[in-house]
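Hi there, hope your week has been kind to you so far. Please have a think about how the structure follows from the sequence. I've dropped the whole record in just underneath, so have a look:

_____
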Amino acid sequence: QVQLLESGGGLVQAGESLRLSCIASGFSFDSVTMGWFRQAPGKEREGISCISWDSSIPSYADSVKGRFTISRDNSKNTLYLQMNNLQPEDTAMYYCAKCYVVGKSIRDRVPSYWGQGTQVTVSS
């Protein structure tokens, strides 16, 4: 079955960095577009980044563009998110999932599979 295991979150101060990882199993990771989503308390889940199977086409939400970098290692079935210059508004639970892009919108691909997520908390 599909499994996604996110890690790398934590508590940091504004301006600091974190690197998230997502290890995938149960499907052909190297042929699927993958992305990162986040959900802050009381808010809807937001797609923030998506990368094609061959890493040739990364996409970013305006809220993270220029600060976050998505990458993947298909040999390790692993997706990464390098987050620099973190801000309090980045505080959320972060998830990885299959994704696609429509215009400026990053969406999860149905059927959706979600892991437990990894919490990122940024203090001011």
Observations:
- The mean pLDDT is 96.
- The first strand starts at residue 3 and ends at 7.
